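Retro notes, item 3 of 5
We never archived the inputs for the nicotinamide-adenine-dinucleotide complex last cycle. Fixing that now. Sequence and ligand:
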Amino acid sequence: MKLLVTGGAGFIGSEFVRQGVRKGYAITVLDKLSYAGDRERLREVDQDIVFSGADIADRRSVEDLFRKTKPDAVVHWAAESHVDRSIQDASPFIEANVRGTQVLLDVCRISQVKKFINVSTDEVYGDLGEEGQFSESTPLNPSSPYSVSKASADMLGRAYQRTYGIPVLTVRPSNNYGPWQYPEKLIPVVVLKAVNNEKVPVYARGENVREWLHVSDCASAVFNILEKGKAGEVYNIGSGQEKRNIEVVKTILRILGKPEKLIAFVEDRPGHDFRYSLNSNRMRTEFGWAPGVTFEQGIEHTVKWYLEHMEWTLSKMQSKH
Ligand SMILES: NC(=O)c1ccc[n+]([C@@H]2O[C@H](COP(=O)([O-])OP(=O)(O)OC[C@H]3O[C@@H](n4cnc5c(N)ncnc54)[C@H](O)[C@@H]3O)[C@@H](O)[C@H]2O)c1
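Structure as it came back at the time:
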C-alpha cells in the first residue's frame, strides 16, 4: 500500500513513518519542515522513503505530488501543534491546520484515495473536571486557538466525507510523549532545565491532568485504524494513564536525581484546560489494540533518550523561531 504521510518529519509523524517502513509500506513524506520539523528524525529510514518539502496549503505542489505518487491512503499528521504558540498568534494555525487540511481534502476529491486518516486531538472536546471521560460522540467544545483549528479540520473532514464521499477517518489521540519531541513541550523542557540546574517552570500549581500516551503506542494505534478502521468513523486513542503535571515533573526530577526545589510555579496559561480523559474502549474492542508502554517504563526511557541526545535537543532550542 502506498501511503502519503503529511508531517512525517515531526515528533509523532516520524515515529509513524519509522514503524511504517518496518511494516513494508511504500511511504512518501510531505512536510514543509517548519521550526518543529526535522529530517534528522527520519535518518534511519531515509533510504526507504520519498521526501517532499512542500507546504500542505500549497495546492499546486500537493496536486503534483498526488499525480506523481498516486497514494492509496493519506495519513495527515502535519499541523502547527503548540497551544502556547497559538495563544501568541492564531494565524499560522488557521493556515496550516484548517486551510492546509482543506487543500488536502480537495485534492483527494480528484484522486483515488481509499482512506484519509485525519489526525485530530483529545483537546477538541474541551476539558473535564476531576470526573468523567470523553467518548467519540462527545460534542466538540475546544478552548484554545490550537484546538479550535483542529476541531475545524475535523468538521471539514466530516463535511467532505458526507458531501463528496471522501473516506475520512478521524483519530483523536491523547497527550503524546517519547523521544524526538520538540523541546517546547513539558517533558523535554523539564529535562533540559533540570539537567542544567535551572528553574523548572510549571503552570499554576501543576494540578492539570493529562492522559500520557507513548508515541510508539500512538503510531501503532493509527496503523490499526488505517488497516481496519471504517470511513466516517471517529477513534479515540488514550492510554488510560492520567497524571497531574506536577507528578510528571516530580517523576522526571527523581529520575535525574534533582531536587524538587527547582520547581517554579508560574502564571497559568490563559484558558488552560484542566483535564482530558478519553474513553478508548472502541480501539480495544474493535481492534484488540492496547498500549504496550506503561508511563513508568516510558518516562524512564524518554528521560534517558534526551540525556543521550542532548546535542540534538539543545540545537533545537538554539534554532527556535
Ligand atoms: N503531540 C501530541 O501530544 C499530540 C496529541 C494529539 C494529537 N496530536 C496531533 O498529531 C499531529 C502531530 O503532532 P506532533 O506533536 O508530531 O507535531 P509536531 O509539531 O512535532 O510536527 C508537525 C509536523 O508538521 C509539519 N508541518 C507543519 N505545518 C505544515 C504545513 N503547512 N505543510 C507541511 N508540513 C507542515 C512540521 O514541519 C512538523 O514536521 C498534529 O496534527 C497534532 O495536532 C499531537
